Inverse folding.
């Protein structure tokens, strides 16, 4: 799955001429041994397009196994009989029970939640933190690698940008303006690449918060990445910005002094 994600991300970025992560978080796997939980999981997955507002009828979404379970696909990828076995003893009765299950589940409170927040997903959580939030795990490991600086604070994207512009000495509104001054363009590039790589913000969210298009922010990250590769001083500036944002509360300087 990791290989599939990497190859698809490279393909999409090349096709659209952009840079940055495509996936919100890393792939997570969970062993499901209880048939009732498996029923709920199948229902949850097949109703995801509905809860996301993409379609009103899950049968109108072509990229899930729902249409296959209903028998509307000639060469299904899903093991239809294995799925239907959870809902009944014959194909006809099982499909009817499966359809009723989906119709009833649309009112469930957990429909539309992230997997880690599903009440039945958390039961029997496997050891090792497999389902730990990917962004938080990265931030925790980086904080530990800093050798005693303490954990990286949990910031919203708005808090991150507010601290960042304060460190860089520019106005927050200038990030979304049409100003082409080197100070504003450079600040936008630095905040975009640090926010994406060090703080785990998605490019689309950074773009929205800065008042720019995802394409513009992807280009900014690409420019910053290329400059960082060839400019040791610029690499240090990015490290300094990252540390300064992490410590920019109550007027604290990057070295911990007031």
């Amino acid at each position: 799955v990791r290989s599939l994600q990497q190859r698809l991300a490279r393909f999409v970025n090349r096709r659209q001429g952009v840079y940055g992560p495509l996936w919100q978080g890393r792939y997570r796997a969970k062993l499901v041994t209880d048939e009732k939980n498996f029923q709920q999981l199948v229902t949850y997955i097949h109703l995801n397009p509905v809860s996301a507002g993409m379609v009103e009828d899950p049968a109108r979404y072509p990229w899930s196994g729902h249409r296959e379970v209903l028998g509307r696909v000639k060469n299904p990828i899903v093991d239809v009989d294995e799925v239907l076995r959870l809902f009944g003893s014959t194909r006809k009765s099982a499909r009817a029970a499966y359809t009723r299950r989906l119709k009833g589940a649309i009112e469930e409170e957990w429909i539309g939640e992230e997997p880690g927040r599903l009440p039945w997903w958390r039961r029997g959580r496997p050891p090792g933190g497999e389902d730990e939030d990917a962004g938080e795990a990265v931030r925790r490991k980086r904080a530990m690698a800093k050798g005693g600086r303490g954990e990286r604070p949990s910031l919203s994207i708005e808090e991150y940008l507010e601290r960042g512009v304060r460190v860089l000495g520019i106005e927050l509104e200038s990030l979304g303006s049409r100003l082409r001054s080197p100070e504003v363009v450079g600040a936008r590039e630095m905040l975009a690449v640090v926010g994406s790589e060090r703080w785990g913000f998605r490019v689309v969210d950074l773009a929205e918060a800065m008042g720019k298009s995802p394409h513009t922010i992807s280009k900014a990250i690409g420019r910053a990445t290329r400059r960082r590769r060839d400019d040791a001083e610029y690499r240090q500036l990015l490290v300094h910005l990252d540390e300064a944002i992490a410590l920019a509360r109550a007027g604290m300087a990057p070295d911990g002094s007031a």
About this structure: Confidence is low (pLDDT under 50) at residues 124-150, 250-258.
